[in-house]
Amino acid sequence: MSAKNERDENKRVTIYDVAEAAGVAPSTVSRTFSRPGRVNAQTAQRIREIAAEMGYRTKPVTSPDLSEETHVLAVVVADISNPVFAQVMRGFQIEATKRGYTVLLIDSQEDDSHERQAIERVLHLVDGVVLTSSRMSDSSINQIVKVKPVVAVNRHAVGIPSIVPDTATAVREAVEHLHNLGHRRITYVSGPEASWADGMRWRALSDSCEELGIQLRRVGPNSPNLEGGVEGAKAWLQNQTTAVICYNDIVAIGFIKAVQSRGIQVPESVSVVGFDNSVVAFFATPSLSSIGQLTATLGARAARALITQLRHRSAPSAENIVVPMKVVWRDSVGPARPTS
Predict the structure, then answer these.
(1) What is the pLDDT of residues 77-87, one digit of tens each?
(2) Which own/partner contact pairs does 153-160 have at CB distance under 8 Å and 24+ positions apart?
(3) N or C: which end of the chain has fewer CB atoms below 10 A?
(4) Is it the case that residue 3 has pLDDT exceeding 80?
(5) In this predicted model, what pLDDT tens digit does every residue of 186-215 receive, in sequence order?
(6) 150-153 and 162-165 as β-strands: parallel, antiparallel, unpaired?
(7) Residue 132, class by beta-carbon neighbours within 10 Å (0-12 exposed, 13-18 middle, 19+ buried)?
(8) 132/78 Cα distance (integer angstroms)
(9) Residue 287 above 80 pLDDT?
């Protein structure tokens, strides 16, 4: 395949694009190609003409209609290799199975366009969708909401139920503890630019540090993996602080490994805190202090919220369900090193 064709394939026109151009719901576009008898003939003809002009390609549909129940729920996660998402998935699956639903997992690979296209391909197979740490814009999410019920986890999205952690309270506790240990300068090694959670963590850190008179700097954006932690360490080495808080536990471990390779000890020279309190925090060397939520609880609450929508479609709720967070202190945090 040529480079041009490869780019064209990556920019494939979706039913959402056609729906927006035609001024109709995505479900109407879907029915035009899968159940043409259920769409007004003039509307269907206009949709087909617009789709042809835009280069939309469809495949023969042999799956259920969008209005038929399948008792299957989709869970979309940003990165299945991150143990936090595996725990959310487990909590969701246990709750959904108890209520008679099967769960379909989608790994968006931290890419908003991949996330949207993957959801589109399975939307006719599921009754509802849970978005975990979605990288899509609110407008893209609202296009899906027009077709199926949606719940967001670890992300607030306007108009739909959102399961969010109490970031502000837990971050305040962490910053106060660091302050009590003598830390007056903190670096935040941030995560992906499109991450809603990253924005909330930065805002909570900014507010807490300002109230306590702590100097805070941000480095990034960084990828939410070990490499992101290594990049964050390179930036920190140019302007060192006595404490570092990282976007997640994996980034924190990458940071620790990078500074240790340069002979810098943790926590003697720099204290490090992660986010998520995942299983990797316990096995890190030194063991990693982390700000986390009960991830299985997030998944279970999401399942209940989505199934409630499915069973009470006439009364949808767009409330924010706030789940408590806690700070687990381990060996990666200690008193601030004396300043010269």
Answers:
(1) 988 888 888 88
(2) 153/88, 153/298, 153/299, 153/302, 154/88, 154/196, 154/197, 154/298, 155/131, 155/196, 155/197, 156/196, 156/320, 157/131, 158/318, 159/318, 160/318
(3) C
(4) no
(5) 999 999 988 889 999 999 999 999 999 999
(6) parallel
(7) buried
(8) 7
(9) yes
Closest CA to 191 of 84, 283, 90: 84
- All structural domains of the chain, each given as residue ranges with its CATH number in brackets, are 3-54 (1.10.260.40), 72-164+295-321 (3.40.50.2300), 167-292 (3.40.50.2300)
At 1, is the pLDDT very low, low, confident or very high (cuts 50, 70, 90)? very low
pLDDT of res. 62: 41
CA 108 to chain centre: 9
* Side-by-side strand order, sheet with 162-165: 102-107, 72-77, 128-132, 150-153, 162-165, 320-323
* Torsion 211-213-217-222 (CA) sign: negative
Residue range 121-161, pLDDT digits in tens = 888 899 999 998 888 888 888 888 888 999 999 888 878 88
* Across 222-233, average pLDDT: 95
Closest CA to 329 of 285, 284, 279, 273: 273
* Segments of the chain assigned E as strands: 72-77, 102-107, 128-132, 150-153, 162-165, 185-189, 215-219, 243-246, 271-275, 289-293, 320-323, 325-328
Work out whether strand 320-323 and strand 215-219 pair parallel, antiparallel, or are unpaired: unpaired
User: Does residue 65 have a pLDDT over 60?
Assistant: no
Structural contact between residues 73 and 305, judged by C-beta atoms closer than 8 angstroms: no
E-assigned strand segments in 253-319: 271-275, 289-293
Under 8 Å between Cβ of 163 and 141: no
Residue whose structure tokens are 């056609």: 18
